[in-house]
Amino acid sequence: MRCAGKLRARGVPATSSLAKGCARAQFRHRDVSVQAAQKKGGRGGGGQGQQKSPFLKKRLRLRKSSDGVSHLGSSLKSRGNRPFPGPPKGQGPPLRVLPIGGLGEIGMNCMLIGHEDRYIMLDAGLMFPDFAEIGMQKVLPDTSFLHQWKDLIEAVVITHGHEDHIGALAWVVPGLDPATPIYATKFVMNLVERRMKEYNLWQPHRFKTFEVGSKFPVGPFELESFRVTHSIPDCIGCILRSESGTIVHTGDWRIEEKPVDGDEFDRATLEKIGQEGATLLMSDSTNVLSPGRTTSESDVGVALANRMAQHHGKGRIIATQFASNINRLGMLKKAADACGRKLAFAGPSIAQYLDACNKAGRAPFDPSELLDIEEAIEGYDSNKLVIVTTGSQAEPRAALNLAAFGASPFLKIQPEDLILYSAKVIPGNESRVMKMMNNLAGYGCEIAMGRGENLHTSGHAYQEEQKEILKMVNPDNFLPVHGEYAFLQHHANMAEQECGIRNTNVIRNGQMIGFGAKRNGKQVGDLGSLSKVVGNVKLFSFYNDGGKGTGTSEQMQLYERIKIAQEGIVFTNVEVKNRVQGPPAQARGKTRASRQREVPTGIQVNLRITARALWIDEGRLISEMNRFVKTRLRDMPVTSSLNEIEKVVSEELRRCCKSHNNKRPEVIVMAHDAGVGGMSSGSGGASRGGRRSSPASQGGGRAAAAQGGGQRGQRLAQGGRQSRENPRENPPSGNKLSKEEVDRIEWP
Ligand SMILES: [Zn+2]
Ligand SMILES: [Zn+2]
Q1: Is 77 inside any structural domain?
Q2: What is the pTM assigned to this prediction?
Q3: In this structure, is residue 82 part of a structural domain?
Q4: What is the Å distance from ligand 2's center to 273 Cα?
Q5: Which residue, of 510, 529, 550, is where some domain finishes?
Q6: Which residues constitute the domain of residue 352?
Q7: Where does 147-200 show beta strands of DSSP type E?
Q8: 328 C-alpha to center of ligand 1: Å?
Q9: Interval between CA 123 and ligand 1 midpoint (Å)
């Protein structure tokens, strides 16, 4: 409901007269009392148990995506009973790491970390595919393998709330033992809870929260978490202690020197570990190619405030950022406050993250201060408005992208708008982001983006930060994680050459690496302080189509999808008018040559050819295909089986497309005798006519259609409304052989 009157009644702030630079001064002023309140856990207007703001209530409708099982598809089905890749039970190096995802790629972080034969899982993330165009929305780690070996996995620990660390939980958790606990900090658990409820998988007793810095037993380890700074609140690194040594995993991190939420990177704990001695350090490699150090979030805040101040009195500001970057949202709010503007959200995901943060008592401001987007656009003063949108990566359904293409029902871009691009373009998204920005620019609005604007800082450490941590922990072994294979290699080289780490390892997903044991600070066993790859398993990726379809690339028919997009698809219904069925008794016993001589040729058909995703040359290709098929069928004996006819028709269709278009489309041919089923009958029996295909790539109806012609006729007859129980009792009229002709035929 839109109500401009109600808006005015809320009290619109007086117009501020900020000159350039004034915003900066106001922005740097930090209210000491607020900081103190934050330290006590009373940050912003939120807090655990506090009433949800009416704004959030309106924006947070939970959409149910599953009954708890139906979204799993084939993700838990066995992929060939693969052996666990570790050494035989009770043997081999005691400390082990098996990456399931995240090594050699950015995303899908998931690994097993073990002591002897007991393991915990660290993170269960997804990856967004590069090829969303063919209908895939999520790539998941090998849930089938994790399910097969669920008895070895005693707990799951989540380092932080990014999708590449929690996004696969709805597929991973159902595959684990029902008693396996999942640990996360409060804010992260709020995000997890929402996802689990969406998939009907929330079991409060299994999902356990912990405080950053606390110590507790997890599987075979004692876990101590330590705070790291990143681009989402409440991120931890893990220290996993065991009698055989200590493993440190940083999670995703960078060092924020001036944390805007007051949460500092925990250098002290890492220094302590350095003195204690760590067997293994695993650290984030995302930005290993970037020299220097990351800039501070508060510097980004200053840049945002300055840019907003420059637009004073000129119109609306539309900011886009990663929805999960709550500290950035806090910076936008501060900048907006300094410039006398109010925030409104376009797109529900920012509200979801803010709500999770609010419930954990960590929201940077009270969500009730937000304007309702539709009311704000309708009736609020443009000069006092900042619209925060999703869509920094031009995601097809995100608010900014829809607005750029004029498809948003409420957000229409105006020439007076300033677009603040407070994010980075993720590699792979460049062309679609540029398309979006081009469209936005087409409206005549001003756009602020790019390195020089300083409107974004990365959440992942640059080289100098990485070196600092490597030197601080000074582990016996270093294993770079979270990055492309080249990044891992570079990180390992840097650790060896510049930080004095003696033993570095670069492994891939599916390779288990073991580390030598320590007892009372001394190395014991054959391996000493070294590491060794002790096993290997072939892992699969699973794909989800955004709905309930989940399976391997083969099961999701990725090859076929790409093939159809590139080459097109041709579907042909062949109604055979004069085929002769069933061998008459009197025809038996003659020679092959005489049989062939006596069988009349010339299959007559009605053809219906349909092509999709293919250039049909204004219909000429269809005519050509008709001609090719009919010409070839003229030479076919009337006794040919439907399978033979389908094979020949698909050969001709492919030959025709090759010669006319130089294309090799997928070809589906369905032949049937006149009056026995067909496309119009809804029987759905089609064959690929000899095309390369696997059982998994055929639909149920198609697989059935590959059976013999007699069975086909019967099945089609049962399935088709217009068809008959027994075609012989009531044969179709016209174009059929006379009884004498049939009697002359020699049947093979
Ligand atoms: Zn992250
Ligand atoms: Zn990550």
Answers
A1: no
A2: 0.82
A3: no
A4: 23
A5: 550
A6: 4-8+17-62+296-452
A7: 153-157, 182-184
A8: 14
A9: 11
- Report pLDDT for 527: 79
The Å distance, Cα 483 to ligand 1 centre, comes to: 12
Place of tokens 């982001």: 433
Ligand located closest to 253 CA: 1
CA separation for the pair 746, 725 (Å, rounded): 27
Q: How many whole angstroms from 475 Cα to the centroid of ligand 2?
A: 22
- Taking the centre of ligand 2 as the mean of its atom positions, its distance from the CA of residue 287, in whole angstroms, is 11
Task: Output the CA 674–ligand 2 centroid distance in Å.
Answer: 60
By the 10 Å C-beta count (0-12 exposed, 13-18 middle, 19+ buried), 194 is classed as: middle
Q: Which ligand is nearest to the CA of 459?
A: 1
Quickly list H helices, 15-139.
22-28, 32-39, 54-59
Q: What tens digit of pLDDT does each residue of 274-309 get?
A: 999 999 999 999 999 999 999 999 999 999 999 999
Amino acid at position 144, single letter: S
Q: How many Å is the maximal CA-CA distance in the chain?
A: 106
Between 463-473 and 267-276, two packed helices, what is the crossing angle to 10 degrees?
Answer: 40
Same structural domain, 641 and 715: yes
CATH number at residue 478: 3.60.15.10
> What are the structure tokens assigned to 427, written together?
């590699």
The CATH number of the domain holding residue 342 is 3.40.50.10710
Convert 620-636 to b/e letters by CB count within 10 Å (16 or more is b). Answer: ebbebbbebbeebbeeb
From ligand 2's centre to the CA of 508, what distance in Å? 17
d(CA 379, CA 368): 18
pLDDT band at 248 (very low <50, low <70, confident <90, very high): very high
Q: Starting from the CA of residue 107, give the closest ligand.
A: 2
Residue 165 CA to ligand 2 center (angstroms) comes to: 6
Q: How many domains does the structure of the chain reveal?
A: 3
Give me the half-sphere count of Cα atoms (radius 13 Å) on the Cβ side of residue 499.
27
**Residue 500 contacts residue 302 (beta carbons within 8 Å):** no
Distance (angstroms) between ligand 1 centre and the Cα of 106 equals 10
In a domain, 94, yes or no: no
Q: What does the pLDDT average to over 704-715?
A: 35
Residues 347 and 262 grouped into a single domain: no
77 CA to middle of ligand 2, Å?
A: 27
pLDDT of the residue at 182: 98
What's the rounded mean pLDDT across residues 580-590? 55
Residues that place a CB less than 5 A from ion ligand 2: 164, 252
Ligand 1 centroid to 249 CA: how many Å? 13
User: In the prediction, which pLDDT does 264 show?
Assistant: 96
Cα–ligand 1 centroid distance for 253 (angstroms): 7
Contact 286, 356 (CB under 8 A): no
Res 581 pLDDT > 60 = yes
Same domain, 110 and 157: yes
**What spacing in Å lies between the alpha carbon of 188 and ligand 1's midpoint?**
12
pLDDT confidence band for 748 (50 / 70 / 90): very low
pLDDT beyond 70 at 36? no
What is the Å distance from ligand 2's center to 162 Cα? 6
- Could you tell me the distance, in angstroms and rounded to a whole number, from the CA of residue 424 to the centre of ligand 2? 15
Among the ranges given (510-514, 589-593, 595-599), the one the predictor scored with the smallest mean pLDDT: 589-593
Give the strand pairing for 95-101 and 110-115.
antiparallel
Q: How far is the CA of 690 from the centre of ligand 2 (A)?
A: 45
* In a shared domain, residues 318 and 431: yes
Asked whether residue 564 falls in the same domain as residue 616, the answer is yes
Mean pLDDT of the chain: 84
Identity of the residue numbered 379: G
- Residues 561 and 468 occupy one common structural domain: no
pLDDT of residue 396: 87
Q: By mean pLDDT, which of 138-142, 164-168, 238-242, 347-351 is the weakest?
A: 347-351
Cα 404 to middle of ligand 2, angstroms: 29
Q: Which ligand is nearest to the CA of 102?
A: 2
Same domain, 507 and 649: no
User: Where do we find the tokens 């061998």?
Assistant: 583
Q: Is 87 inside a domain boundary?
A: no
Are 611 and 733 in the same domain? yes
